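Render this sequence as a predicted structure.
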Amino acid sequence: MMRVRDLERVALLWALFGAVVSAQRGAAPPLPRAAAPIDLTGYWVSIVSEDWRYRMVTPTKGDFQGIPVTPEAATVADAWDPDADTKAGNQCKSYGAPAIMRVPGRIHVTWDDDRTLKLETDAGTQTRVFRFAASPSKAERSWQGDSTAEWDMQPTGRGAAASALRRGSLKVTTSNLKSGYIRKNGVPYSEDAKLSEHFDVVRSRDGRQLLMVVSILEDPKYLRQPLIVSSQFLKQADAKGWEPTPCSATW
């Protein structure tokens, strides 16, 4: 039979256990920067291993191959005039969020704060901002739009070992876009376009880090179905080769 003192000790232990559990339940989740399952920061250079004739040179007018354009989109693209775009100050139309990751060049990713990632491009000198919260509503649309980010975590099972092996990617959704070009030759996307992207970091067989970006563009006005493309970048040791250049209506 337990003595009164033993019962008091048991009661104290249960009280302490309850306090610990309660504290854990009430603890705030880690900030996005601390919770990151992958490191996207640093300098990366694009690897152009496909679509060379669309990415490295300006395609000819009317070349829509690989893009499920609507008849209305084809009409817009057939009227493409790069000189008119330049005169109107619209030479950045092919550097918007739906196209910029396909533009050959380098990107630089940094944490702006614990809840905000910033991605800068040397091609076109563009800046994308990924906020791990609802993006503030903007009255004015922009080439890069409003981007909301979240960590897309993969289930890893239970236990400390599973936690140590956690994996995930960055999911970014972008809207509030200014209409622009999917491809340099005037193939359009509209202000109704919605962009979803998944950023992941993997290692090649020789140990180099690669950034993989899968983009899904939906546009009820100019696309008959979602356009899905994958772009790759190689991790750089430093800023060597980083050369910001202005937008250009043609290459």
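Summary. Residues 31-236 form one domain. DSSP finds seven helices and eleven strands in the chain.
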